[in-house]
Structures are given as structure tokens and as C-alpha cells.
């Protein structure tokens, strides 16, 4: 039990995929303009990560070593396409605002990295906790980023107005430079905290 | 040699299983996706012509390229409840950050309104082309107007290019509407 908890917890902060490992930043910057998009992206990403990690872990003994990458890619691309189709069918507005970034989960390096470095070597149960931890860590980072960007950049939170009408939002926060600035602050704070602790 | 055959078999098997699952998911999502598309089209037409009773596509005008990179994807003829007729153009035209996809309605000699379906304009600036404030100035606007920002169109501050591309697309498609669609049929 302790080991499972450890695998889950490391994804949250110590090895947070966005803030510490810093992989897959492209889609993080692009969709974190509103909290709603960030939540949608987290759900899509988590589904892909969890299913492809579980599939690979389940059949890892059947995969010949030199064929592993193409087989990983089938699992990843397959689950991404499922997310894309389901989102288009049942949540078209979300699918429209996330646009190309859902299909692009396929090339999100964090998915392939987790499958290759973790799922291919570990048992299903441990893998599940790794995938869950990474997903929650991704969600924490992207939603925290989106919250600040939406509040300062549009003056709303989850679509509800938080500032009075006269508030003039800072447009730059919605552009990629704004995302980099806020992300930089988060990374600095988190690294500073981890550094002090150890 | 035997290795190659074995590997090929494994990869083929994986691919078949993968595509089988995808085919199964596709089989129940694709009718939904089709329905969603029709629904959003219907809603769009309803927003422009609130009196809409029925509409049908005029297939002769499907995928017509106009000048300046403007492309008319579909044309719909709309019958209103009061008997009047309007036309809705589903069109793509270049904006500041990429193609803008929109529905533009015309009736007699006026523009009835525009809806932006998809765009890649700058958030906070050009993206304001989707707001009611910007769009409502085109409702019931006579087609004889010049459709030039800062003249007869109120441009979005800091997004002259986006404002101009929307205005000139409405004007360009209006010419097509008057000369080909309405005049021809």
C-alpha cells in the first residue's frame, strides 16, 4: 500500500509532469486560457495516459522488445482517437474549443515517456497508480495556470465574472508570453520549496 | 527470416485489434457527431433568421472559390414563417490568425447577420469578432454600404485586420449572392 501511495504522490509535485519534468508544454500553454478548457484537457489527457499505460502494462510480457515502440504508439493513438470521437459526439463545444490539441495528445511526449519508462516494466496495479498520479499532477498544473490566466486575462472564472464591469483584463496573460511568465513563477516556487525541503 | 514473419504477424495482429476497437467506437459515435453537426447548423441558421421554418441546401453552389481566398462551402435557402426567403452562406475566409469559418445570411438587399463558427484570431483582440457587440452591426445592413472598417463598420480596437476581413468577406459574398445565387435562380 505504501509503495502504491508513493507512486501516486510523486506525480503530484516531486515529478510533476508539467512543472518539474516539463514535458508536453505546447498543449499546456495553448489550452490553459480558460479553466473549462483546462479541465476538459485534463480529462482527455488522463484517459489517454491511464488506458495506454494499463494496456501496455497488461500485455508487456507479450511485446517483443524491438517491436515495443510501434505497439505503444498503436495503444496511445488508439485511445486518443477514442477520446476525440467521444468528445466530438457528446461534448461538441468542448471539442471545438480544444480543437487540434486533443488529437495532438498522441505526440505528447509525457505519454510515451511514462509508457516506456514505467508501464513497460511494472505490474498493472503499480502502473495504475503511476498513471493516476501523473494525471492529477498534470491537472493541478494546468488548472492552476488556467485559473490565473482566466481571472487576469478575461476577468472571469469558469465563465462567471469575478471582477466588476469596469475591470480591463490584461490581454497579454492570454497570449503565450503570459503563460510562460505564470508557469515560470510556479516552477520557481515549486523548485524552491522542494530544494529547501531536501 | 522466421523472425521477420513473426514480427510482421505480431504487428498485424496489434493493428487489427486496434482498428477493431476504433471501428466499434466509431460505429456509435459517428451518428452522434453527424447529429451534432446538423444541430449546430440549424442553431446557426436560427440565430440569423429567427423566423426560419425550413431550409435546404442548394447543391449547385457547393465548394465555390471566390477571389481573395474566400471559399463558399455550402449555400442554404431558408424559408421563413412569413413566407419570405433568405440565403445562408457557410463560408471560409482568411483572417489575421488563420481561416475564419462562418455563416452569413442575406435577404433581399440586406445582410441579415453573421455567425463565426471557428477562428484562430488573437484572444482578447481579434477574437472579439465573435461578440454580439461586433456582430450586431451587420444585422439588416444594406448591401449598398461600403463595408469598410472605420467608415461604416465600427472596428474592434487593436484588431483592424480581423474587422476588415470579416467586413470585406460579407461584401464579397454579397456580390456572389446577388449575381449568382439570387439572380441565377
From TrEMBL, chain A:
Keywords: Cell membrane, Electron transport, Membrane, Translocase, Transmembrane, Transmembrane helix, Transport. It is found in: Cell membrane; Endomembrane system. Its EC number is 7.-.-.-. It is a multi-pass membrane protein. It holds the Pfam family Rnf-Nqr. One of its GO terms (cellular component) is endomembrane system. One of its GO terms (biological process) is electron transport chain. The chain crosses the membrane at residues 12-32, 38-59, 71-91, 97-115, 127-152, 172-194. NCBIfam families: PRK12405.1 (NF009070). The complex is composed of six subunits: RnfA, RnfB, RnfC, RnfD, RnfE and RnfG. Belongs to the NqrDE/RnfAE family. Part of a membrane-bound complex that couples electron transfer with translocation of ions across the membrane. This is Ion-translocating oxidoreductase complex subunit E. The gene is rsxE.
Amino acid at each position: 500500500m505504501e509503495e502504491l501511495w508513493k507512486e501516486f504522490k510523486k506525480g503530484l509535485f516531486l515529478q510533476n509532469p508539467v512543472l518539474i519534468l516539463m514535458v508536453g508544454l505546447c498543449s499546456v500553454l495553448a489550452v490553459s486560457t480558460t479553466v473549462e478548457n483546462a479541465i476538459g484537457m485534463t480529462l482527455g489527457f488522463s484517459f489517454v495516459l491511464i488506458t495506454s499505460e494499463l494496456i501496455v502494462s497488461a500485455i508487456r510480457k507479450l511485446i517483443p522488445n524491438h517491436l515495443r515502440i510501434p505497439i505503444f504508439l498503436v495503444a496511445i493513438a488508439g485511445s486518443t482517437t477514442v477520446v476525440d470521437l467521444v468528445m466530438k459526439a457528446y461534448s461538441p463545444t468542448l471539442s471545438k474549443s480544444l480543437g487540434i490539441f486533443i488529437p495532438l495528445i498522441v505526440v505528447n511526449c509525457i505519454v510515451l515517456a511514462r509508457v516506456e519508462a514505467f508501464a513497460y516494466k511494472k505490474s498493472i496495479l503499480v502502473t495504475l497508480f503511476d498513471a493516476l498520479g501523473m494525471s492529477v499532477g498534470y491537472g493541478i498544473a494546468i488548472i492552476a495556470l488556467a485559473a490565473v490566466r482566466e481571472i487576469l486575462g478575461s476577468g472571469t472564472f469558469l465563465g462567471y465574472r469575478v471582477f466588476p464591469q469596469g475591470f480591463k483584463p490584461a490581454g497579454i496573460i492570454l497570449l503565450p508570453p503570459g503563460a510562460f511568465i505564470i508557469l515560470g513563477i510556479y516552477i520557481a516556487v515549486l523548485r524552491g520549496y522542494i530544494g529547501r525541503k531536501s | 527470416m522466421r523472425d521477420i514473419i513473426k514480427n510482421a504477424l505480431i504487428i498485424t495482429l496489434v493493428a487489427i485489434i486496434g482498428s477493431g476497437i476504433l471501428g466499434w467506437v466509431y460505429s456509435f459515435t459517428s451518428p452522434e457527431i453527424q447529429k451534432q453537426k446538423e444541430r449546430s447548423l440549424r442553431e446557426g441558421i436560427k440565430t440569423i433568421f429567427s423566423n426560419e421554418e425550413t431550409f435546404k441546401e442548394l447543391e449547385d453552389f457547393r465548394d465555390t472559390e471566390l477571389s481573395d481566398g474566400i471559399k463558399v462551402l455550402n449555400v442554404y435557402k431558408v424559408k421563413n414563417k412569413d413566407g419570405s426567403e433568405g440565403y445562408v452562406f457557410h463560408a471560409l475566409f482568411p483572417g489575421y490568425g488563420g481561416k475564419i469559418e462562418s455563416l452569413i445570411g442575406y435577404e433581399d438587399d440586406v445582410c441579415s447577420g453573421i455567425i463565426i463558427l471557428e477562428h484562430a484570431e488573437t484572444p482578447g483582440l481579434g477574437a472579439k469578432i465573435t461578440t454580439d457587440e461586433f456582430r450586431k452591426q451587420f444585422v439588416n445592413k444594406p448591401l449598398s454600404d461600403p463595408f469598410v472598417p472605420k467608415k461604416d463598420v465600427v472596428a474592434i480596437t487593436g484588431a483592424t485586420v480581423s474587422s476588415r476581413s470579416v467586413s470585406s468577406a460579407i461584401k464579397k459574398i454579397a456580390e456572389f449572392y446577388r449575381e449568382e445565387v439570387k439572380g441565377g435562380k
